[in-house]
């Protein structure tokens, strides 16, 4: 039994997603261990982002179940929750492949929006705060402190009052991670966090992800193409190809898996029937 | 042809392309105008005949050709565009010698025109010169203020000054009129101000839906109508007063906002606009056809006026009236001044609530939803509730404004709530700059007040002759103004966004970054 299989945070079972006749994800099952960094890799079009969108509620899967268990053993069936409940109740946060910041709002405002639910409750569902009741001021100060903490972590404190749309690409990536972290998640899903970053920024990102896992006691699930990131920081790698799961193991196991090599590098023509039989095509 | 000329090109080298461009523009103008201006249908005994008007056509085409040629040579293709000195009046760039010479020449020529005009008695000359002086004076005064007080919070001063003016103007003008009998058209002035303030309030209300939440709503007048009819029917059927009905009407409109909001939750941009447009029409058509309740096209009349803590503004009634209670001489203008303060109060409440909401989580969620709805949902924000609260809040203020409209008019009918009202309110929000409270107020004053001011442009008769009726050209001037604003300020008068919270110092966010929610 692999380490992530006992008491996993998230258990994905037989996940299948069809768009009309296209099977984008076909019977994928895996576990995300608590406090693990789990990577989801695969060639373009393998269905990685579709899996992500199912987990975070943007798609309703055609089949399968996804169970997320909190440390207090409260459990959530993600396929039954609305997308905003997956963040606010099941505590799963995500970033996007094409960065989705609130570009016309400042960096700080982005992080304040991320704490909407906490603040909204403190504002007495708005009416209390309009009438000057309730401890909204205190809640807002705490939220600003939380935001300031994360701005420090991603090294953006000096740019707190700049519009998010004016940040450089690398800063925007880090801000999106900070924004997701401001929702206080248990599982952070990162869709290609290193895309478009240079080598130095990628190193910084690796450090950030490590520090998040070490200090926040949460699990990370990431999609990544950059193998230098994946192989270095992942505890556990799941490989998809054409919507099917072709490998599931540690970095070392996946690196030497012939199916993975075939999927990434291709195989000589003469070996194709053999490999196809092995892969089950 | 807007590219700047390469420096060092001689006048002759620039003349040729400029001339070619002007001729092409003239040819296009000829094609456009040859039927619009070039011929006129005349009803003769023999039937309709076409009467050619070659002179008028030639003048129009000539204006285009020479205008384009001059613009090419001195603005678009010029090394030092002749417009730069004037633009510099409204920025803080340094003046160069050349700029001062241009400005000085223009001022000198205008002064000459003014003198000559007053000698030969041509008011048209005087009008033109006065306009030029007003423009130059405005720029010079602005430059002087910015030069001497560079760090004043201008937006705040402008806002406070505007509010102070709005609060004091009716009282002061009324007292001045009573004291000195100046013959001011008080009633007209107050009526116009009430109209402007109603649109300011409607603009601020719609600004919540369109400007903050980014939901393009073309049926805002439906909430205005709901508020007006709820108050009118409650008042005429059950005899309830304005202050009693105002919250009920607001709540009814907000409820209607939620009801209309539900079916359009999934829609955005153009699709949302079409459906809300249809909702606006549905409400109006129900009002026309549901005769037993709404009295159909005949409308509801005898709607009571608001009272001042129970004191009516009437000449003499059963009980004490406002004038008898305070020992004043009865004057119908008192009631109008009271109406003015009611709408001013309602508008300021709308503004204050909006400003407060922007700094609360719900307001930030509206703006975040305008920027990116998917990101909002990924952060745990329930966009269904967020959208419905935006619709409901906007509708609430629309309903309050509708109640006020009903009580002011004393009579309402479905004709007051046509699509053109929605279009005007939306135009106010878009021209003002979506999300900007100050911009919306300015736009409402310009659109409604300025539109009205065009009725009083008798000065133009001295230029175009006695037969010229400026009121007839209101729509044309209005259209030109709209096109102008959209060309020079496509994001509205105030397009930038001010942040709702800052760690150190809040700076306005450039308009290009702010989303309009149309995606």
Overview of the molecule:
- The complex is a heterodimer of chains A (281) and B (519).
- Chain A has two domains: 1-91 and 185-281, P-loop containing nucleotide triphosphate hydrolases (Rossmann fold); 101-184, no CATH class.
- Chain A contains twelve helices and ten strands.
- Chain A has helices at 48-55, 83-88, 107-114, 116-122, 127-130, 136-153, 169-181, 199-216, 227-233, 251-255, 258-265, 272-279; strands at residues 10-19, 22-32, 37-41, 63-69, 75-77, 92-94, 187-191, 219-223, 236-241, 244-249.
- In chain A, helix 6 (136-153) crosses helix 7.
- The longest helix of chain A has 18 residues, at 136-153.
- The two termini of chain A are 28 Å apart.
- Chain B has three domains: 1-80, no CATH class; 83-152; 157-314 and 324-456 and 489-513, no CATH class.
- Helix content of chain B is 67%, strand content 2%.
- In chain B, strand 1 (39-44) and strand 2 (47-52) form a beta hairpin.
- With 519 residues, chain B is mainly α.
- Chain B contains 20 helices and two strands.
- Residues 1-5 of chain B have low confidence and may be disordered.
- Chain B starts with 10 loop residues before the first helix and ends in a 31-residue tail after the last helix.
- A two-stranded antiparallel ribbon of chain B has the order 1-2.
- At the A-B interface, helix 2, helix 3, helix 4 and helix 6 of A face helix 13, helix 14 and helix 15 of B.
């Amino acid at each position: 039994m692999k380490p992530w299989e006992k008491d996993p945070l998230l258990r994905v079972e037989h996940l299948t997603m069809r768009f009309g006749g296209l099977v984008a994800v076909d019977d994928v099952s895996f576990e995300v261990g608590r406090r693990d960094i789990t990577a989801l890799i695969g060639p373009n079009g393998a269905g990685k982002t579709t899996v992500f969108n199912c987990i975070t509620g943007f798609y309703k899967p055609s089949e399968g179940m996804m169970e997320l268990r909190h440390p207090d053993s409260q459990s959530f069936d993600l396929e039954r929750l609305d997308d905003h409940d997956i963040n606010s109740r099941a505590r799963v946060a995500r970033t996007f492949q094409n960065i989705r910041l609130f570009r016309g709002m400042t960096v700080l405002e982005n992080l304040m929006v991320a704490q909407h639910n906490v603040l909204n409750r403190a504002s007495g569902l708005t009416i209390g705060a309009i009438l000057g009741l309730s401890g909204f001021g205190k809640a807002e100060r705490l939220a600003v402190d939380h935001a300031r903490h994360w701005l420090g972590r991603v090294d953006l404190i000096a740019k707190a009052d700049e519009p998010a749309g004016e940040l450089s690409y690398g800063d925007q990536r880090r801000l999106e991670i900070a924004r997701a972290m401001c929702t206080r998640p248990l599982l952070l899903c990162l869709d290609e966090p290193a895309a478009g970053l240079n080598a130095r920024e990628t190193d910084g990102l690796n450090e950030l992800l490590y520090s998040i896992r070490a200090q926040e006691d949460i699990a990370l699930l990431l999609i990544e193409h950059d193998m230098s990131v994946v192989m270095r920081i992942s505890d556990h790698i799941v490989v998809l190809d054409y919507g099917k799961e072709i490998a599931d193991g540690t970095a070392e196991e996946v690196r030497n898996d012939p199916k993975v090599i075939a999927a990434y590098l291709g195989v000589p023509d003469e070996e194709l029937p053999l490999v196809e039989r092995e892969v089950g095509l | 042809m807007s590219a700047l000329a390469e420096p060092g090109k001689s006048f002759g080298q620039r003349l040729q392309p400029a001339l070619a461009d002007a001729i092409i523009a003239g040819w296009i103008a000829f094609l456009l105008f040859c039927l619009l201006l070039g011929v006129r249908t005349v009803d003769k005994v023999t039937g309709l005949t076409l009467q050619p008007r070659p002179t008028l056509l030639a003048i129009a085409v000539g204006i285009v050709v020479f205008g384009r040629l001059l613009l090419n040579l001195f603005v678009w293709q010029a090394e030092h565009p002749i417009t730069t000195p004037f633009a510099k009046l409204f920025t803080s760039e340094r003046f160069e010698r050349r700029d001062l010479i241009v400005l000085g020449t223009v001022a000198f020529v205008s002064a000459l025109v003014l003198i000559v005009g007053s000698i030969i008695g041509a008011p048209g000359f005087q009008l033109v010169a006065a306009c030029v002086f007003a423009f130059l004076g405005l720029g010079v005064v602005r430059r002087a203020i910015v030069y001497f007080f560079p760090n004043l919070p201008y937006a705040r001063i402008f806002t406070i000054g505007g509010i102070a003016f709005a609060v004091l103007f009716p009282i002061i003008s009324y007292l001045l009129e009573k004291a000195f009998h100046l013959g001011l058209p008080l009633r007209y002035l107050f009526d116009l101000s009430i109209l402007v303030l109603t649109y300011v309030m409607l603009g601020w209300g719609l600004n919540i839906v369109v400007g903050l939440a980014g939901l393009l709503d073309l049926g805002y007048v439906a909430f205005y109508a709901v508020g007006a009819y709820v108050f009118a029917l409650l008042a005429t059927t059950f005899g309830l007063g304005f202050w009693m009905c105002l919250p009920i009407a607001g709540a009814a409109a907000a409820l209607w906002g939620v009801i209309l909001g539900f079916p359009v939750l999934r829609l955005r941009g153009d699709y949302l606009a079409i459906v809300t447009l249809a909702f606006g029409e549905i409400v109006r058509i129900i009002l026309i056809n549901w005769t037993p309740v709404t009295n159909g096209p005949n409308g509801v009349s005898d709607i009571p006026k608001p009272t001042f803590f129970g004191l009516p503004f009437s000449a003499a009634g059963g009980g004490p009236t406002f004038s008898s209670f305070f020992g004043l001489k009865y004057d119908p203008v008192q009631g109008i001044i009271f109406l003015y303060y009611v709408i001013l109060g309602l508008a300021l409440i709308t503004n204050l609530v909006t400003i407060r909401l922007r700094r609360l989580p719900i307001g930030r969620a509206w703006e975040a939803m305008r920027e990116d709805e998917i990101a909002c949902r990924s952060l745990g924000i329930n966009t269904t509730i967020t959208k419905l609260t935006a619709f409901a809040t906007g509708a609430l203020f629309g309903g309050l404004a509708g109640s006020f409209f009903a009580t002011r008019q004393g009579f309402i009918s479905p004709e007051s709530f046509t699509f053109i009202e929605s279009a005007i309110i939306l135009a106010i929000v878009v021209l003002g700059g979506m999300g900007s409270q100050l911009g919306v107020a300015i736009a409402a004053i310009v659109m409604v007040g300025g539109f009205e001011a065009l009725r009083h442009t008798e000065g133009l008769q001295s230029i175009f002759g006695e037969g010229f009726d400026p009121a007839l050209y209101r729509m044309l001037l209005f259209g030109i103004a709209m096109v102008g604003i959209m060309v020079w300020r496509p994001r509205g008068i105030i397009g930038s966004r001010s942040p709702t919270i800052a760690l150190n110092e809040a700076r306005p966010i450039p308009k290009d970054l702010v989303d309009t929610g149309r995606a």
